Amino acid sequence: MNLPHTPEYSPADVKKAWEYADTGDVIDAVFKYNQKYLHWDELKRRDLPVDPLYVWILMKTFRKKDMKYVMFDDLQLKYNLLDAFLEKLHCLDKSAAGSISSGLDSLPHDRDQFIINSLMEEAIASSQIEGAAVTRTIAKKMLRERRKPATKDERMILNNYITMKRITQVKDEDLTPELILEIHKTITRDTLEDPNDEGRFRDNNEIRVFDMRGNVLHTPPDFASIEGLIEELCAFANNDEGQFIHPVIKGIILHFLIGYVHPFNDGNGRTARSILYWYMLRKDYWLFEYMAVSRAIKDTKGQYKLAYQYTESDENDLTYFIRYNLTAVKTAVDNIQKYIEKKQRESRQALNILQKSEGLSLRQAEIIKFLIKHPGKPITIKEIVETYRVAYGTARNDLFHLEKLGYLAKQKSGKEYIFIFRGLRE
């Protein structure tokens, strides 16, 4: 696959393009493909009424009409707010205080569990994007059981998980170079070739972003400018005066800028997604604590990289990158809605179990419901602690009570007990 590019054209080409400005099918194509915000590499493959170059020139002309600009150092970033963007932003704004909020409120015993699960999903997917070869099942088991990571890839996931939890604690703090360095140090601990690179800006210009074929996709700014660029990035994140930028759009821009500056020798992608997560929580988009945006990104990893490339190849037009990220966010929101609907069904099932059983708490019924779905899976006290955010003694009492009632069989495994589901009682 060739790297994305945009065509050069002359004043004569512009003049020729405008000769088609009153041609109905040409203008229809211009507006149709601007709504989709096609890149040149996509447009040139379409069946068009005239030379694609002339359609592209007209598309670029109309794009400039409503373009918004953001200056970052000597870099001029720009973007268009498409109707599709406004619709997604409106849905997200409503979700944070509307139907999803009431849906989660209807499942109070699930909120903490869902937060933990979402943090796990985000940590796992963000690491997998960067090459961590660990399945979700194994990764979640490690995190729930608080098992020490056995490999570098497992360590990446644990680091991401610790970082996600840390960000929920510092969401009200200003972004500073020190906080960015702390995030990077936490997210890369014991995973880099040179441990001295943990929490340290790069001190060289050897870093390039390559594709799988070895093509250079991005050459970051000179390392000598990193500290100044990071200071400017922090000021941009903390300052809400002047030009209004919708918080979600601004968070996506911060995500892009970390990738553009590439301030570290490794771990830039994970840090960038962490900064997006921090900014959304800072701006009271509490829903992000329940969202695993990186999971949506992982499932479309090729498009994620392409969004960066389209932006940089087309005069730093962020519209491509914003379009991709808003789609990922919308997918994450849809997953939450599906989760709520699923949990509401499961809660009704759990209540049915409660009605037929004596002496079960709602949490204990939830444990049984989980084991019905995973009958061969052993469960431990530590898993219950992590999954339900309860004290060790509470988790122990739950499992011992279920064992006493005959739902579980207890076995010794080293210093720990494991519990096996025996089935529902007659």
From TrEMBL:
Q: Where along the sequence do coiled-coil regions lie? A: none
What is the official name of this protein in its record? Fic family protein
User: Is Transcription regulation given among the entry's keywords?
Assistant: yes
| InterPro entries named in the record | DeoR_HTH, Fido, Fido-like_dom_sf, Fido_containing, WH-like_DNA-bd_sf, WH_DNA-bd_sf
Please name the source species: Methanoculleus methanifontis
The organism's superkingdom is given as Archaea
Arranged from A to Z, the UniProt key words for this protein are: Transcription, Transcription regulation
Q: Does the keyword Transcription apply?
A: yes
The residues covered by the Fido domain are: 175-327
